[in-house]
């Protein structure tokens, strides 16, 4: 059994931040369960682009508001508490954050915790 709190993760190597977002990586590949689980916050009044070419990501919005844009189709989706989106087609996407978003995210395959977004907004292929 694994039990962790976001409080104990804060300020550790599992607490990864960029200028516009922060990811508290609660479950990682090293935990050996086949997925990773994160609490991610995106700052208000920010725009972030991502493209997970090697991972499927499910996202559950628990706080805040913004807009998700599928950059493959140009379609916009409102984001607010209770919204879920699944990037099952490795879609390039943009998140425009109006009010700080707090989201719970699952990645498959799991991330190791050391990944950084490359120039395309993607994480490297899991090894």
From TrEMBL:
<dbReference type="InterPro" id="IPR011051">
    <property type="entry name" value="RmlC_Cupin_sf"/>
</dbReference>
<dbReference type="GO" id="GO:0019491">
    <property type="term" value="P:ectoine biosynthetic process"/>
</dbReference>
<dbReference type="InterPro" id="IPR010462">
    <property type="entry name" value="Ectoine_synth"/>
</dbReference>
<protein>
    <recommendedName>
        <fullName>L-ectoine synthase</fullName>
        <ecNumber>4.2.1.108</ecNumber>
    </recommendedName>
</protein>
<comment type="similarity">
    <text>Belongs to the ectoine synthase family.</text>
</comment>
<comment type="function">
    <text>Catalyzes the circularization of gamma-N-acetyl-alpha,gamma-diaminobutyric acid (ADABA) to ectoine (1,4,5,6-tetrahydro-2-methyl-4-pyrimidine carboxylic acid), which is an excellent osmoprotectant.</text>
</comment>
<comment type="pathway">
    <text>Amine and polyamine biosynthesis; ectoine biosynthesis; L-ectoine from L-aspartate 4-semialdehyde: step 3/3.</text>
</comment>
<keyword id="KW-0456">Lyase</keyword>
<dbReference type="Pfam" id="PF06339">
    <property type="entry name" value="Ectoine_synth"/>
</dbReference>
<dbReference type="GO" id="GO:0033990">
    <property type="term" value="F:ectoine synthase activity"/>
</dbReference>
<dbReference type="InterPro" id="IPR014710">
    <property type="entry name" value="RmlC-like_jellyroll"/>
</dbReference>
